[in-house]
Amino acid sequence: MTKANGEAFVQIRNLRKDFPIRIGMFSHVRLRAVDDISFDIPKGATMGLVGESGCGKTTAGRCLLRLIEPTSGEIRMGEHNLTDLKSEQVAQMRGRMQMVFQDPGGSLTPRMTIGAILREPLDLHTNLNAHEKDQRVRQLLSQVGLQPDHLTRYPHQFSGGQQQRIGVARAIATHPDFIVLDEPTSALDVSVRGQILRLLTQLQEEMGLTYLFISHDLSVIKHTCNQVAVMYLGRIVEIGSTEDIFGSPAHPYTQALLSAVPIPDPAQRGKERLKLPGEVPSPIDLPPGCRLYSRCPYRRDACLEPGPPLLQVGESHKAACILVDENVRLGGGNTPAALSQLA
Ligand code: SF4
Fold it and tell me: Which part of the chain is the ABC transporter domain (predicted)?
């Protein structure tokens, strides 16, 4: 994990993304995939965005880079308000903000050689001459641990781990400031995941990169991120430092996510665990108030009121649960047992 300075470099405020969903021949309903999320990422830091499949984390990541248009909200990167930029201006900024995709094979054009794939962003976003581009492409291969003779090969001639190294090389080609890493290791064999994570950390240190790391894998998030935001059905339900989220999770959903992680240490296996019953509700038929209501063992009538907002748990630790507010005021711990005392 890279140390970061505290100044916000990426700032997200009240970001929303709606998709129209067609129902029958003539009517539509609105699916709110991302609902009013806000967070900051300091320069050189990694923010983890974690949650189950379908919680809106990938949609949020794509909105941040304006690969898809947000419905409302503000996205700032350094001195730029990205939401104010026209599409031509966003295209000019593209070299400064990049994405590494989950499926490395699918994200590389199969008919292009690796040399052509790495040269493409240099053609689009830099003024380098042909010789400088050749030098940069060779430097990129070396930076990600590949060999010069790989330049003339095609994506299918590489393993999944090597394909992801090529994806990373393409993302850093134009010296970006900010990269969204969308499940960058989840399609890889366990044996190569650590290598890719070490490569990403090394490049972050060398280049001062700021990352948004999207993952459903809590162990990866724990070892790579400075801060973590937990999403459920489009909303951030808890946000804090990695120590806060993993050491004293305050929201029942975060506690349930952590409870589902296998515990390798036999001495720790007796620890209290929280399981949520039932299924995740349909995102086009959401419950009023807290979205965890139908599955939460601590629910009460007040949870059906609009909200709850993110409430302060610690200095930079917030959770969207009314019991957390009561618990903090009463000076209790954030364990499931402490919360159940309040329920
Ligand atoms: S607000 Fe209520 S339903 Fe939601 S997580 Fe807290 S206790 Fe559970």
Answer: 10-258
- Residue 141 CB neighbours (<10 A): 21
Q: Tell me, yes or no, whether 43 and 180 share the same domain.
A: yes
Over residues 10-40, the pLDDT tens digits come to 999 999 999 998 887 778 888 999 999 999 9
CA of 319 to the centre of ligand 1 (A): 10
Residue with CA closest to ligand 1 atom 6: 321
Q: Give me the domain span that covers residue 310.
A: 251-265+283-343
Q: How far apart are CA 191 and CA 197, in angstroms?
A: 11
Q: In this structure, are 49 and 159 located in the same domain?
A: yes
Cα 268 to averaged position of ligand 1 atoms, centre (Å): 27
> How far, in Å, from the CA of 253 to the mean position of ligand 1?
9
- Give me the CATH number covering residue 39: 3.40.50.300
- Do both 37 and 86 map to the same domain? yes
The CA–CA distances, whole Å, from 337 to 23, 291, 294, 297, 323 equal 43, 21, 19, 11, 12
Residue 158 falls within a domain, yes or no? Answer: yes
Residues 34, 188: Cα–Cα separation, whole Å: 27
Choose which residue among 231, 323, 324 to substitute to test ligand 1 binding: the one with the highest number of ligand atoms within 8 A of its C-beta.
Answer: 323
What is the complex's ipTM, to 2 decimals? 0.99
Nearest CA to ligand 1 atom 4: 290
pLDDT tens, 140-177?
999 999 999 999 999 999 999 999 999 999 999 999 99
